[in-house]
């Protein structure tokens, strides 16, 4: 026997003597049934709130203008905080949307940017004005290509459970571009009536009504008195009051804002996913404004809706809680 075989066999014999007892103990302990999730770092449940989601808008710039940094921070946040889904408030692909459901921008600006495991959840997008530059319906068709992109139509609604009992949140996702510019081929009057009836006919279990649209009806960004802001205000403000809408979630101005004009509805603008635009301080209906890259994180139960504005470094710039 050569020296190498002698050393190997000697080592194996020695290991055999020392391992027999531990192996016997393991064998007597029974069979385990560990799943992959059991071996991964788990997010601690939030007992105070049953529903959590992220909201971001105006992001699709191939990773530029800190889009990559915001995406990375979103992934880190969702890895350590409960999160059910992501809402995108439009202008998903600059400068002119996508030409088909196979457009390379879908990879360059979305799939290859929001890569964190924690962001491989359902995304619920709407269209922005830039998404109208090519084929808006391509983003609807992309829902059949991507495992996480969920956009069944240009406007749609969804009731989401609050986790306990039968309490729910009603989300009404709208397409504001044809409403502002009276695009007759898109039948904006039909959409407005659909929105009104959907809000009015919400089930008795709905505790919060949230409308998601791209254009805000108020802002302290550059578009304070812009045509689109005034036009969408004229169209939506009466419906919000009539149907008792709690929150309007929008983008368009590239900043983070919490506004409370007269009436019931709170306006949250989360349009800081990439390139920024300035904000004006001191406007009487503004509770918070920041021209800083980031996103919003919402936590909801039957009585409270909490919002945190988080920047790309992970700092909470602002936090507020709405109560019923």
Features:
324 residues, alpha/beta, 6-stranded mixed β-sheet, 8 helices, globular
Structure commentary:
Helices cover 28% and strands 23% of the residues. By secondary structure, it is α/β, with parallel strands linked by helices. The strands form two sheets. It has a seven-stranded mixed β-sheet with strand order 4-5-6-7-9-8-10, covered by helices on one side. Strands 3-2-1-11-12-13 form a six-stranded mixed β-sheet, with helices on one face. The N and C termini lie far apart (84 Å).
Helix and strand arrangement:
Layout: H1 3-28, H2 36-39, E1 51-56, H3 67-80, E2 85-88, H4 105-111, E3 122-125, H5 137-141, E4 156-161, E5 168-173, H6 176-180, H7 188-200, E6 206-212, H8 227-242, E7 247-250, E8 256-259, E9 266-270, E10 286-290, E11 294-300, E12 304-311, E13 316-323
Parallel strand pairs: 1-2, 2-3, 5-6, 6-7, 7-9
Antiparallel strand pairs: 1-11, 4-5, 8-9, 8-10, 11-12, 12-13
Give the structure's gist in a few sentences.
This protein is α/β, with parallel strands linked by helices and 324 residues long.
Strand content: 15-25%
Estimate percent helicity: 25-40%
- Read across the widest sheet, the strand sequence of neighbours is 4-5-6-7-9-8-10
Name the structural class: alpha/beta
**Tell me about the biggest sheet?**
7 strands, mixed
Whole-number mean pLDDT? 91
Low-confidence stretches: 10-21
- Give the C-alpha Rg: 25 Å
Query: What is the N-to-C order of secondary-structure elements (H for helix, E for strand)?
Result: HHEHEHEHEEHHEHEEEEEEE
Summed up, the helix count is: 8
The first-to-last residue Cα distance is: 84 Å
- Give the overall shape, derived from the CA principal axes: globular
Number of strands: 13
């Amino acid at each position: 026997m050569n020296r190498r075989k002698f050393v190997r066999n000697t080592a194996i014999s020695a290991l055999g003597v020392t391992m027999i007892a531990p192996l016997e103990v393991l064998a007597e302990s029974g069979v385990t049934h560990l799943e992959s999730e059991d071996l991964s770092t788990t997010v601690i449940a939030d007992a105070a709130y049953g529903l959590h989601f992220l909201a971001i808008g105006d992001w699709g710039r191939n990773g530029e203008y800190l889009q990559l940094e915001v995406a990375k921070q979103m992934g880190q946040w969702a890895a350590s905080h409960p999160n059910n889904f992501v809402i995108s408030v439009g202008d998903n692909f600059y400068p002119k949307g996508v030409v088909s459901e196979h457009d390379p921008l879908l990879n360059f600006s979305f799939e290859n940017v929001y890569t964190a495991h924690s962001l491989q959840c359902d995304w619920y997008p709407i269209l922005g004005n830039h998404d109208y530059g090519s084929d808006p319906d391509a983003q609807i068709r992309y829902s059949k290509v991507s495992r996480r992109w969920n956009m069944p139509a240009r406007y749609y609604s969804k009731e989401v459970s609050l986790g306990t009992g039968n309490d729910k949140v009603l989300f009404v996702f709208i397409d504001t571009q044809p409403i502002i510019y009276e695009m007759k081929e898109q039948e904006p009057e039909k959409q407005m009536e659909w929105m009104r009836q959907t809000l009015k006919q919400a089930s008795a279990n709905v505790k919060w009504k949230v409308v998601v649209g791209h254009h805000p009806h108020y802002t302290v960004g550059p578009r304070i008195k812009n045509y689109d802001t005034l036009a969408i205000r004229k169209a939506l403000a009466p419906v919000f009051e009539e149907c008792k809408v709690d929150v309007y979630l929008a983008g368009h101005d590239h900043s983070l804002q919490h506004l409370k004009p007269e009436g019931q509805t709170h306006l949250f603008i989360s349009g800081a996913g990439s390139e920024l635009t300035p904000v004006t301080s001191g406007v009487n209906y503004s509770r918070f404004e920041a021209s800083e890259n980031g996103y919003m994180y919402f936590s909801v139960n039957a009585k409270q809706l909490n919002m945190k504005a988080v920047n790309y470094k992970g700092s909470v710039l602002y936090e507020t809680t709405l109560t019923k």
